[in-house]
Amino acid sequence: MSEKPTIVLVHGFWGGAAHWANVIVELNKRGYDRIHAVENPLTSLADDAERTRRMVKQVDGPVVLVGHSYGGAVITEAGDLPHVTALVYIAAFAPDAGESPGGITEEKPPAAFANIAPDSDGYLWIKQDKFHESFAQDLSPDAALVMAVTQRAPLASTFGDKVTAPAWRNKPVWYQVSTEDRMIHPDNERRMAARMNPRKTVELDASHASLASRPEDVVDLIEDAVNGTAG
Predict the structure, then answer these.
(1) CA 106 to CA 166: how far, in whole Å?
(2) Which of 70, 34, 64, 38 is nearest to 51 (CA)?
(3) Which end of the chain is less congested by CB atoms within 10 angstroms, N or C?
(4) What is the dihedral of CA 89, 197, 189, 64, to 10 degrees?
(5) AB hydrolase-1 domain spans which residues (predicted)?
(6) How many Å apart are CA 15 and CA 148, to the nearest integer?
(7) How many structural domains comprise the chain?
(8) Using one digit for the tens of pLDDT, what is the confidence trace for 113-127?
(9) Alpha helices (runs of H) in the chain, residue ranges in sequence order
């Protein structure tokens, strides 16, 4: 298995590294023994990109970076390291230079936009009683409840942080659209994917939480990126 690249997984808003649990298990089943899941602070794009870069720099050999949701903005900002061979976006933001996740969201607000609320300390939360229908409607109520209770809220200011030099302009890209996404409008996902000229785009009949509800399909796309950049 030593010839396989390291897979580095980057989570988004309202989650943590554990959101990748089903993908991690599926990758392991397929023979990937070098997998890392970054735990980002969600305090600013600069902070999260630096945390991701530090993880990637500790890896010897090729790395495939995979970002979910806001994690796509993070890999866009942090994916310029020379041993990153591919970028894989899972229902994710892929901003261009000068764009922010918040700006992209405002262009075409998603269905669940109204279910996000700030607290008195400047953090944004998905209302717990709306989490299932907003983020993960294709998961069981119990699985969504755990996600809702354990969600990690970002600082609201992070939504406005702009990408500086998008790595997707220089790296091969793969993209997965969630057609039933209520957190990022599916048409925004399609638009972001199309302008990156990806090697492959797949559409899944899935919620924003496709990494949890459709892990086999997500890993299929990651493997396509692995095979497409081998050697």
Answers:
(1) 20
(2) 38
(3) C
(4) 0
(5) 7-220
(6) 9
(7) 1
(8) 999 999 999 999 999
(9) 21-29, 45-57, 71-78, 101-107, 131-135, 141-150, 186-195, 210-213, 215-228
